Amino acid sequence: MEQNDISSRIVFADRGKVNVEKGVEFAPKFDQNGLIPALAMDHITHEPLMLAYMNAESLRMTMELGEAVYYSRSRQEIWHKGATSGHVQKVKQILVDCDQDALIVLVDQCGAGACHTGHHSCFYRSVPFSDELKALPQGGASRCVKRTEALFLMPKPCTARAINSFCASICVRRIDAPSFSAVKS
Q1: 68-93, pLDDT tens digit by residue?
Q2: Cα gap 29→8, rounded to integer Å
């Protein structure tokens, strides 16, 4: 059976006829462009991997294939993640939020990673905030710090909590250090 034939059999509930927040019917709310945000996360660690969008067709394809299929806003086309790179995302679970206008796609990330830059995750930089900003020198420019740069400087072995704490502190302490931007992971 052709993929389009199978996908067309997946019918989403009519949002006007179901209790979206308390019902059991899947009635995704697509935005004015026909898209719904889908956050891909590692199914074991829950690390965020990438944020993409799905339209009704790519969501149906994802449900049928068991692999992540998105809609590329820049190319205006269906995008089967990893079809050309081999970095496929095997779907383990799809979660929908309370009002069904956002998805979390728990995946097994195959290949080198989710990000087109070669990183495992698209979320490889940390932005300083709150007390971290107060600790910056007067007039000091803030910049994103690559999480991988911070991890490179971190003593090993360490816990996940220590990693998060260290990444936050390195962002403040070394933010203007000229050698910091040259650190490679």
Answers
A1: 999 999 999 999 999 999 999 999 99
A2: 18
